[in-house]
Amino acid sequence: MSAIRWLDSKPFGQQIIILTAVFDPVGAVGGYLLAPEFDIDPIMGAVFGLVIAGIPTMLWILRYNQKHGE
Fold first, then answer.
1. Are 16 and 61 within 8 A, CB to CB?
2. What is the pLDDT of residues 51-63, one digit of tens each?
3. Which of 16, 20, 36, 45 is most deeply buried (CB count within 10 A of its CB)?
4. What are phi and psi of 24, to 5 degrees?
């Protein structure tokens, strides 16, 4: 939970940049490496990984909007 508090203490723009910098490379590499298991092209796996990696960032934005009433 301290990571969430640390991230929450940053300005909103920095929060999004940090989340994107962490999740996007993990999603792209994970999708690239797992794609052959699902019989799809690795580059398409990387694209799917990026889409999936965007979900935590989207949820963080929703949380921020609910918390700040915007």
1. yes
2. 999 999 999 999 9
3. 45
4. -65, -50
Distance CA 12, CA 37 (A): 37
Residue-wise pLDDT for 14-39, tens only, equals 999 999 999 999 999 999 999 999 99
Residue 22, amino acid? V
Please tell me the distance from the alpha carbon of residue 24 to that of residue 30, in angstroms, as a whole number.
10
Q: Which pLDDT value is given to residue 70?
A: 58
- How many Å apart are CA 16 and CA 57, to the nearest integer? 7
Indicate whether this model's pTM tops 0.85.
no
Per domain, the residue ranges of the chain are 11-68
Residue 34, CB half-sphere, CA atoms under 13 Å: how many?
A: 13
